[in-house]
Design brief:
The structure is a homodimer. By secondary structure, chain A is an alpha/beta fold. Chain A has 2 domains: 130 residues, Alpha-Beta Barrel (TIM Barrel); 67 residues, no CATH class. Helices cover 50% and strands 9% of the residues of chain A. The first copy, chain A, has 11 helices and 5 strands; from the N terminus they run αβαβααβαβαβααααα. In chain A, strand 1, helix 2 and strand 2 form a beta-alpha-beta unit. In chain A, helix 1 runs parallel beside helix 2, helix 9 crosses helix 10 and helix 10 packs across helix 11. The radius of gyration of chain A is 18 Å and the shape is globular. Chains A and B meet through helix 2 of A and helix 2 of B. Chains A, B: This is Dihydrodipicolinate synthase. Chains A, B: Keywords: Lyase.
Chain lengths: 220, 220
């Protein structure tokens, strides 16, 4: 994706009324630190809504250092960083969030992604959870979030751990997108199939397993 | 990239007079085997020019199995596979090419990519080299190719090995693209800077090193 395309899409989003934009450094060619800084520098100069830096190395093949996050977070419009998850373990997760927090301005929030890591991330000090399941199962996602925000770390972890069969299904089916899109189909929220080709929603036993989990885990 | 976008681009390329197309399974979401097969199935149905399957896991995060190559190579229009390189070592390279060759029709060629691996790949039985340097240094690329095609494996390897400082520079500067684009600038073949942002051509010491190598290695 060229910088000029990103600018055009950002303008289009703003014209359509978006109140913020999310930007990952997606590129056919793996980018360097200076190229990524240049991308955010150019885009934030043009932007009149807040921007969330999307740190998603699994997709972009680009690894942000905390130092680079620190530089980018100084740019105008940057208001949040979506991190790719947190290490397993309470102390490790806290150390990871604390280190990033020490290098970015206070007005830039840190949000966790990877739904199975949300409770650990929120307990470790992330101010937001950029959730996939919340679009289809808002009550389930909100219960985890409210527990963590209330300081009940144990309850947040408990609520997350009971969803382990769902996190396992995400991993087995190539990430959360296909499963959550399938859930939207199963709940009648969208036409089926809802994903654009070449992507396909779950079929056969995976689809049946998901339908059963929605009931068993009382996802809502 | 959605299938419908790929179809639109393929149609555009054909309308513009392209005599063939190259298609890698680029996707924001990492694709499954069935999704990739579905992509090539749909695209080749619509195509009236030959297609080269671009196997480029470093960019797409998708790993083709030889079995999947075998299925896709049966589709109409498929005439070549661009493989991501060959293993180091004459026997290993030959075994890799032979295995793929045994699973695809005879009318589908195998072409090597990764310029530093071209001599090894051609010697191992690849019928083509999908080269980056050939666009700017055709004589240099042709000498390697002609030696391999004439059966002089040792000379092909010798000509490639003397370019090792160039292959090293490619690796140190994030792949061949930036260096070869810089070479095109240095030779006055294009305006400078020629790469679209956020990509940048080489600067400072990397640029000077490349300019020196063009002379020292007599690239032409």
């Amino acid at each position: 994706m060229r910088t000029r395309d990103v600018l055009a899409l950002a303008e289009d989003a703003q014209q359509a009324g978006a109140s913020g934009v999310l930007l990952a450094p997606v590129s056919y060619q793996k980018l360097s630190d200076e190229e990524v800084f240049g991308l955010y520098d150019v885009v934030t100069r043009e932007l009149s809504v807040p921007l969330c830096v999307y740190d998603n190395p699994g997709t972009t093949r680009f690894e942000f250092s905390d130092e680079l996050h620190g530089r980018i977070a100084q740019l105008p419009s940057v208001r949040s960083i979506k991190i790719p998850g947190v290490p397993a373990g309470t102390d490790e997760a806290r150390a990871r969030v604390d280190r990033l927090r020490s290098m970015i301005p206070a007005h830039v929030s840190i949000g966790v992604s990877g739904d199975g890591m949300a409770a650990m991330g929120l307990n470790a000090g992330c101010e937001a959870w950029y959730s996939v399941i919340a679009g289809v199962f808002p009550d389930t996602a909100l219960a985890i979030t409210r527990a963590a925000q209330a300081g009940d770390a144990q309850q947040a972890m408990h609520l997350s751990e009971r969803l382990q069969p769902l996190w396992d299904l995400f991993r087995q089916t190539g990430g959360s997108l296909r499963a959550v899109a399938t859930a939207a189909e199963l709940k009648g929220l969208v036409d089926s199939p809802c994903l654009p080709l070449p992507l396909k929603t779950l079929e056969d036993s995976d689809r049946q397993r998901l339908a059963a989990l929605i009931d068993e885990l009382q996802l809502s």
